[in-house]
Amino acid sequence: MNHATPPPRLHALDNLRALMMWLGIVLHVATNHLTVASPLPWRDPKTSPVADLLLLFIHSFRMPVFFVLAGFFVALLVERRGAHGMLKNRSLRLALPFAIFWPPLFVGTAVLAMVYIHLTVRGVPGIDTALTPARQPGGSPFNTMHLWFLYQLFWLSVLAWAGVRLQRFVPVRLRDAVARGFAVLAERRWGFVVLALPLAVTGAFHPSGFVMESGAFLPPFSEWVQSGLFFVFGWYVHRDQERLLARFAARCKGLAFTGLAFFVVTLALLGAMREPGAHRLPHPEFWIAFAYNATSWLWSLALIGGFLRYLPRQNAVLAYLSHSSYWVYLVHMLGTIGFGILLFHAPLGALAKMGLNIAATSLVALASYQLLVRHTVIGRLLNGQRAANRSSKKSTKARVFAAR
Question: For residues 160 and 194, is the Cβ–Cβ distance under 8 A?
């Protein structure tokens, strides 16, 4: 039996995951104030190009980072608990919270959304089902909303479980070759080019090259490719984590600046595509998708490396934000929509409204976590209370041994 001490927890990745959760508030508040076509059927009368830029900026790395970290931690769970233990953990941490919280969140979000749509169209709060956007023929009235991440991640975990169970039927040489291939792509400076190509191909079939989350219970293939490639990459990073994570940390600044260059190229291509009568590149959706996904890969690795290099430890504030982030992720849409309704007629500019909405949603979400979640069964379900208890127990033991 192996009694080796498990490696210390990577607090840097917990810190990064918490920040990505909190950026969801900024992203969804910005959606209320877009000047361009919105993915949501409501809009505040005050719009700003800053909201457009924030949406494009945050969306470029937020979910890619999530899926890379998700693949990494699923591989970690398989290593420590086996495939069945991993699947049990993912069922308790992903599928069960989705099953419990999706129904009330769907109802609450739908009601608030209808009020906001009525306010957008008619200028006064109300509910009129005639204003509800038309569905595609045969389409379902239900969707996973912002919980699509939990939904897709659980099914990716199921696929990972199946892959582990079936790997004995795959030749060892082939498995090792795939692992070496991902390690090379993670290590080489040009690896992001190869990784961005399949995402550029799938993006080429979408408007402006962007694969947007549909929230469908049966997502299209392109969404599985988009999220699945980052997940698989994280899985293989775990296999050679010591070397690859050190490489990301050493190169984080270069990765960030190169990603910025590709982000600027994305903006330029989008501007050229929307300019009437301008000369266009052939297949502009492909090139936009390539530049944008190159940005995603570069900034995802830069963020992972940067947090490992500059924020490798947790303090009391970071630990609290990390523990509360799951709950904040679940409920934040109620705040961004609800406070958007309250601020609709406020005599303020778009940036002031965005700042107030972000602050109000964050404060209410944190207050609800502290009062309703942290020390309750919900906290134990989401692992916040359990994690806090473990930290408290470890601190107590340390003080006892120090006293001896």
Answer: no
